[in-house]
Amino acid sequence: MYLVTGATGGIGRRVVRLLRERDLSVRAFVRLTSRYGELEQRGAELFIGDLRQERDIQKACKGVQYIISTHGSGGDAQALDYRANIELIDQAKENGVEHFVFISVLGADRGYEDAPTFKAKRAVEKYLQSSGLNYTILRPAGLASNLIPLAEQFRQTGIYLLNGDAKNRTSIVSTDDLAQIAVDSVNLEGARNQIFPVGGPDVLKRQDIPRIFGRLFNKEPIVINPPLVVLDGLRNAIGFVNPQARKSLGTFRTLLANEFFCTADEIVNLELIFNLKLESLESFLQRYLGS
Ligand SMILES: NC(=O)c1ccc[n+]([C@@H]2O[C@H](COP(=O)([O-])OP(=O)(O)OC[C@H]3O[C@@H](n4cnc5c(N)ncnc54)[C@H](OP(=O)(O)O)[C@@H]3O)[C@@H](O)[C@H]2O)c1
């Protein structure tokens, strides 16, 4: 039995699909408010709970052999990126789990002090590494699936809002490739007890993204590019009324202010170990949105 957290998210729902296509039994951890109809139709067992509740995590982990942790934090890094994963790891030990796959983030080890999610991910990575469990830690760059709503907006308006430095590099990964890597990590000897940066095959500049949208929809992009100081100003203003939101925005700012891409060697290594050809962002978007 596989336990998948974040089963209704961009990565998680693809992980559940792949596992069910292979006829493997899956317990999908979902919230009552989640859109989980598809998971049920595919034959996943639903566990309805909340990852903020330790008791829910304890119950969900009973009798599972594999855990794939893909949930997000919705702005509460302490409770979800950190505590929920620590509890999942403790319960994995308690239940004799054979392999734990953790979705971290590219740059988790760079010591970004202002980014709660990065700090939580790094702390969880270390905890997992010293847990004695078999593990695979995946550190993805940006996910291609997150660009689908932006591309749809672009299709309507031709406008692309590019925050921060347009020349910053990124290697956006196909969310389908990432899901396949997460699922295969459990069985591949070369993936055991390893950390992998995971990106797409191309190192893109942020300014390439509206160009890709433009080609996809045959539209000249109108790019609005506010500098980071605009976000900083907004963040400080929000901080007066909601200091917690100001902290959470630190992760977003870190994402905008830095480069997140994989080296050519890292990509070759990934393709070799997982025996796949990574898909470009353009091809991913074409598959989902092309006419
Ligand atoms: N997005 C990126 O570009 C990116 C880049 C690098 C790493 N990552 C990491 O990849 C992972 C998945 O990202 P994603 O974009 O696929 O996430 P996502 O689409 O935002 O999905 C988040 C998932 O977590 C679930 N969740 C949130 N709070 C929960 C709670 N209290 N109890 C139970 N479930 C809860 C959500 O459930 P609901 O459906 O109920 O909301 C959803 O299934 C995250 O760990 C993220 O840090 C993302």
UniProtKB/TrEMBL annotation:
Gene3D superfamilies: NAD(P)-binding Rossmann-like Domain. Its EC number is 1.3.1.75. Transmembrane segments: none annotated. Keywords: Oxidoreductase, Photosynthesis, Photosystem II. It is an enzyme of class 1 (oxidoreductase). It holds the Pfam family NAD_binding_10. Residues 6-187 form the NAD(P)-binding domain. This is Divinyl protochlorophyllide a 8-vinyl-reductase. The lineage of its organism: Bacteria, Bacillati, Cyanobacteriota, Cyanophyceae, Coleofasciculales.
